[in-house]
Specification:
20 helices; ligase; 33 strands; alpha+beta; 654 residues; eight-stranded mixed sheet; protein biosynthesis
Length: 654
């Protein structure tokens, strides 16, 4: 008999060799019907995988991320199986599950390509195969046999993957129907659970992400256990199109891109710049209350700076190439991170324990070379600004500083009405320490500090192994927007390693030299990404304190343009942001156009308003109207803003 422990702390005994499905059946028939995959000691496996020793077990249903992952992983194989039937001679690359569905990279023979018009045929074939309830069979296979099997099938890319990436004794395949794939799993027991399928897009993707290699086609799709779920998802996609930050950003004149300036390099227009600066001012106010000092560092740094930090070794391939100067051997890099510069600020002069914690903040622009195919509006760019800060502290101060940063992030999310968020503790991969710097001892300290801080705050955080930064563990915040999509925004990271690499030190109370601990934090994360998410969350209807234009003044004819400008000047004196639409257009057209710009208030002015010194008020999205004096309306706006900004008056408790 073996002991099986469950997440609620209960323990049951089962015969050795029991599997996840049998465990579910022993609990309830309903659970057995709904369970998709099984977690065994942190690893997700198929429901028929035998368990031969005492284990911690978790049973995953569709609502669990691990359940969705297994479901979509099998759906990716189902897509490949359908393509294999429809397009003989097709070459397969990689086909994983992703956050919202799955994709498969493929290359058709003779220069053929798959178009969106082909999607209904492919979907129909997938549904036909799924209805057969084909068992998904796992098999362990030697490297030699794997090479032979995939060579016989003519799968060039699979053979390359086996030769270059896989070690003998660790290779498994999964077969459903006539399709076999290299895969670690996990999968569904059979294809029958896949009831609703939709292919969503097709894009180009270089093999292994290498622009010098062949360009394949990447087919994206999503699937569900019920058609109703797919219908709801498609409605969400339609809403997402309406909220697309690229579309709204253009309509509101917030930002632009220029091919001549370069791909992935956003240009902030005047209204977008105002928006960003107000966000930065809001965070500056909070940071000042928490004892941060702001700095400005260069956009480039000597190559040796990033070799010392380890960023060159870990991010070199994702960075722009070094900049060579006329001086022999002198090389600079566009900075991919702000932290090495901040380490140099700490090292600039002798530090005492009395100086700690030292909190350094910067709205620092960094540069990373993203593949052209990965660029997407403001969410994936090559130049972005981080609301970066680094706290240098004594080991005994780490937890308290971590808690203070959590308070700042909570305040930021509250101010922007991101009320639905999850936390994720990202730790090292326990089976692969090679990709991280630093000793086991310092990693254990950092990981413990994060876990204890979350426990003290009562924050339920999911633990993900293998997601840590190369220099330390982190706590990431995943926000759900107004239509239910998840975005990774704020982050806090504990780092014992960079201070050691830069040989940072302070003089402690006993007059000995000690190495400080470094905490990285960014409540917004990237200003670009945060703005994109905020645009889509609000559909461009920003809070009144933040929006670039609070008021649009609409004269009903050109005769009243001068009065409209007079009103705007009076507003400007008292801090109300107003724009005048002086175009020679009918008032209905002006209203529609300014509605499109998401301006919160429209003030219509004509003969009566000019004579009385008033404005006719129309609120965005409403037919309600009212007449107010200029001073009354200005007070109304400023009172609304003052009430909203009270939420930004955040101070630490201690």
């Amino acid at each position: 008999m073996i002991k099986i422990s469950f997440p609620d702390g209960s323990v049951r005994e089962y015969e050795q060799g029991v599997n996840g499905l049998q465990i579910a059946e022993s609990i309830s028939p309903a659970l057995a019907r709904d369970v998709i995959a099984c977690g065994v000691n942190g690893e997700t496996v198929e429901l028929n995988r035998p368990i031969n020793e005492d284990s911690a077990v978790q049973l995953y249903k569709w609502d669990d991320e691990a359940g969705k992952h297994a479901f979509w992983h099998t759906s990716a194989h189902l897509l490949a199986e359908a393509l294999q039937e429809l397009y003989p001679g097709i070459q397969f690359g990689f086909g994983p599950a992703v956050e919202n569905g799955f994709f498969y990279d493929v290359l058709l023979k003779d220069g053929m390509s798959i178009k969106e018009s082909d999607f209904p045929t492919i979907e129909a074939k997938m549904k036909e195969l799924a209805s057969k309830k084909e068992p998904v069979v796992r098999k362990e296979i030697s490297k030699a046999d794997a090479l032979k099997e995939f060579a016989d099938a003519g799968q060039t890319y699979k053979c390359e993957h086996i030769e270059q990436d896989l070690e003998d004794g660790s290779i498994t395949t999964y077969t459903q129907g006539a399709f076999t794939d290299l895969c670690k799993g996990p999968h569904l027991l059979n294809t029958g659970a896949i009831k609703a399928i939709k292919l969503t897009s097709v894009a180009g993707a270089f093999w292994r992400g290498d622009a010098t290699r062949e360009q394949m086609q990447r087919l994206y799709g999503v699937s569900f256990p019920k058609k109703k779920m797919l219908d709801e998802y498609l409605l969400m996609l339609e809403e997402a199109k309406k909220r697309d930050h690229r579309k709204i950003g253009k309509e509101m004149d917030l930002f632009m891109f220029s091919e001549r300036v370069g791909k992935g390099l956003p240009i902030w227009l005047p209204k977008g710049t105002e928006l960003r600066l107000r966000m930065q001012d809001m965070l500056r106010k909070i940071q000042k209350n928490y004892g941060y000092q702001e700095v400005i560092t260069p956009h480039i740094g000597g190559k040796n700076l990033y070799m010392t930090s380890g960023h060159y070794a870990h991010y070199g391939k994702d960075s722009f190439q070094p900049i060579h100067t006329p001086e022999e051997g002198e090389e600079y890099m566009l900075k991919p991170m702000n932290c090495p510069h901040h380490c140099e600020i700490f090292a600039w002069k002798p530090r005492s324990y009395k100086d700690l914690p030292l909190r350094i903040a910067e709205f620092g622009t960094v540069y990373r070379y993203e593949q052209s195919g990965e660029l997407h509006g403001l969410t994936r760019v090559r130049s972005f600004t981080q609301d970066d800060a680094h706290i240098f502290c004594r080991p005994e101060q780490v937890k308290n500083e971590f808690l203070r940063v959590m308070d700042i992030i909570n305040a930021v999310f509250s101010i922007f009405h991101f009320d639905n968020f999850e936390a994720q503790i990202s730790l090292r991969d326990p089976n692969d320490h090679e990709k991280y710097i630093g000793s086991d001892e310092v990693w254990e300290k950092g990981e413990s500090a994060i876990i204890e801080a979350c426990r003290e705050k009562g924050l339920k955080a999911k633990i993900e192994y293998g997601e840590a930064a190369f220099y330390g563990p982190k706590l990431d915040f995943m926000v759900k927007d107004a239509i239910g999509r998840r975005w990774q925004l704020g982050t806090i990271q504990v780092d014992y390693n960079l201070p050691e690499r830069f040989k940072l030190e302070y003089t402690d109370e006993d007059n000995t030299k000690k190495t400080p601990v470094m905490i990285h934090r960014a409540p917004f994360g990237s200003m670009e990404r945060f703005c994109a998410v905020l645009i889509e969350h609000t559909a461009g209807h920003f809070p009144l304190w933040l929006t670039p234009d609070q008021v649009a003044i609409l004269p009903i004819s050109e005769k009243y343009n001068e009065y409209a400008r007079k009103v705007a000047k009076e507003f400007d004196v008292v801090g109300v942001r107003a724009t005048v639409d002086s175009r020679n257009e009918k008032i209905g057209r002006k209203v529609r156009d300014n509605e499109m710009k998401r301006i919160p208030y429209m003030l219509i002015v004509g003969e009566k308003e000019q004579a009385d010194g008033t404005v006719s008020v129309r609120k965005q999205g409403s037919e309600e109207r009212g007449v107010m004096t200029i001073a009354e309306f200005a007070k109304k706006i400023n009172d609304e803003v003052a009430e909203m900004l009270r939420a930004t008056d955040v101070k630490p408790e201690d």
